Every structure is written in C-alpha cells, then in structure tokens.
Amino acid sequence: MIATLPAIGLADSQSMRKLSIEEIKKFTCGAFQVIKKDKNIEFQRFCPKLQDYFKTNPTFDIRAKCTTGIVIRFASDTSFLKIKAKIVPKSPATGQIDILSNNKPITSLHTNLKNGLLDAVVPITSENNEMNIIEIYLPHYSVCYINEIFIEKKSGLSAAPLQDILLAFGDSITQGGGAYGPSQTAVSIAARQNNLSICNFGVGGYFFDANSLICEQAIEPRYIIVAFGTNDWSLGKSPNNARDYLNKLRAIFPHTKIIILEPLFRFRPDTDGANNAVNKNKITLSEYRAQLAQLVSEFDNMICVPPSRLLKFDKDLLSDGVHPTGEGYIQFGTNIGQILKTIFDE
Asked: N or C, fewer C-beta in 10 Å, the chain?
C-alpha cells in the first residue's frame, strides 16, 4: 500500500511553473482525449460514441466516465509537484491520486470529503539531480478533473520514453473496485511489471457485449486482457455471448495476443466458494468457466487462464465475496504480470 504523506505548505509562486494544457495532453496515457473546459482539464477515457452507448444505464455511465487507468507521465528533475484537482459529485468512490517516481510510490493524495477538492504540494527527491520518470495516477473509481499542475520553475521537463500498451476490458474487478488506489489495481500492477502503458476499459457491473466494442481510438496494444464472466454468470447470460464478443474483438485486433481471464472464485450465498451453486440457467460457475475455455480454444493467438493461476483460493482475499481486497489485487496483478511475461512461450 502507498503511504500517505501530509501535504507540505504552498510552494512559492515565484519558484513554480504551470504545465500547459498542451503539455498535459502530450504526457497523458490511457485517455481518448484531454480537453480544457473553463478552469478544468477533463480526461475522457472513451470515445464519444462509446460513452454515449453507456449513457443508456446511469450506473454504467458514471463508471465509464471515471479516470480509470489514466496516467500523466513525464520526465523531470523537479523537487516538487503542486496539484489542484477535484472529484465530480456522485462519483462511485472518493478520489485518490497516486504519485510514483521511477516506479516507486511517493504518496497518495485524497480529495476533501466535503467538497471533493484537492490542493497539495508533494516533494520529489532526485539522485544526483537526474531526471525522474514521474507518474500521476488519476482516480480509478471517480470522475476527476485536474485544475492545475505545477513543477519547479528551474527544472527540466520532457516526455517520458514511450511504452507498449496493455489494453484491458472487463468489469469492476478490471476497473479496480476495492484496490488500495489507482496504481494498485491489478491492471496497473501487471503493466508496471512489464514496462507497459495502460488503457483500462473496465466498467463496473459490465459483461460480454459485442456492441460495446466501439473503438475509435487509434490503439495498437501489445497485449489485450479480457476479464468478463462473473456478472455474465450471475445474470444468467449465455457463454455464447463471449463468442460474439471475441469474434468482433479479433476482427478489430487481428494479430494482437489476447489473454482471457476466467472468472475468479466467489464467496457469496450463491456460491460459498463451493462451485456447486447454479444460476438461473442451471449452470454452475465452474461449468461456465469450462464453456468459456472451450470457446476460447477456437481462436488463434488467444489463451484462457484459470482462476487458480490468478488468485489464491482464500476467502480473506475477497472483500465482499466477489471483489479482491487491496492485498488480493496485489496478488492478482502480480500473477497477471508474470503470465504476460511467459504465457505465450509455454
């Protein structure tokens, strides 16, 4: 877990320089577009057509607007960051911004619970005055606007080295509901292990839906992770929905390596971890997984990963019987990261 540091006093305005909207756009990863509206900088994870598609359901709409997986990443030898941000009312969770330097956590910043505002200065240390790779992870389960970002006036500033992309589709577990913070979701952890940038398309509560594959983004991912299934099973949806989804996904990305993560185990009254409860279609979660794995075997360059390789079968690693705890996400993400390193060589 990232330790939270108290915000230090406001830096001297004469010693700061403000990042321009053009610089923030250049440094932002994981967003379809970054736009300036009045005093706010908004980060839109999805293209307008896909965001409009989610608008038909208010729950999906607000979760799709969250800044999940969006990272402002740049190189600088600044001795501090000053960040002003705010969380939009009715966001699914309170706002947390994680700051990392050279892949190491510095601090977590939290918005004010009453007004959703954040105004903080964070010290950044540098060895031998070298340039650090600084990453600002925006909240993964909130709608966050940045007002301003400042760095030390005399410091250097440049784009960080480009990284290949990990593109993730899935539900609330992909989005990171219950993770310690935006840098501690399974997708974020797996990406850092493999020096990858993130496009996290997880939307809490979602399921295999081929019509949601509306991709106006010019994305060329190195890997794709797909992690639906637990909602499909609990809602009684047919595993055949996955076939339509994967056919369309393969058409969009004909050569990309795709990893399908089977649904994790559940400890709920409907399963109790025993894998013998059935949904309304009289299918157990184990049977759903088996049908999904059989379906995936029909595709080239696509691999299905069972939950035994993803998370230890332990009730204490689930916060509510379905979602991993903070520690569960760390184990889950670490295992995904190892799978990305080796699975296509097996």
From this structure: C
What tokens were used for 300?
A: 């080239």
The pLDDT mean for the chain works out to 91
Q: What CA–CA distance (Å, rounded) separates 30 from 199?
A: 4
Which ranges constitute the DSSP H helices of the chain?
Answer: 21-27, 48-54, 58-64, 172-175, 186-193, 230-235, 240-252, 285-296, 326-342
d(CA 216, CA 320): 35
Structural tokens at position 311: 């998370």
Q: What angle do CA 63, 65, 70 make, to 5 degrees?
A: 105
The number of angstroms, rounded, from the C-alpha of 249 to the middle of its chain's C-alpha atoms is 19
Tally of residues, the chain: 346
> What is the per-residue burial (b if ≥16 Cβ within 10 Å, else e) of 327-346?
ebbbbbbebbbebbeeeeee
DSSP β-bridge partners for residue 198:
166
Residue given tokens 């909240």 in the structure block: 139
- Given a cut of 60, whether residue 340 has pLDDT beyond it is yes
Q: For the chain, list the domains and their CATH numbers.
A: 13-159 (2.60.120.260), 164-345 (3.40.50.1110)
C-alpha 176 chain-centroid distance = 6
Contact indicator for 144, 87 with CB cutoff of 8 Å: yes
Q: For residues 172 and 158, what is the distance between their CA atoms, to the nearest angstrom? A: 34
> With contact defined as beta carbons under 8 Å apart, do 303 and 258 qualify?
yes
Query: Which residue carries 């050569």 as its tokens?
Result: 255
The one-letter amino acid code at 211 reads N
- Which letter does DSSP use for residue 345 in this model? G
Helical ranges in 85-180 per DSSP H? 172-175
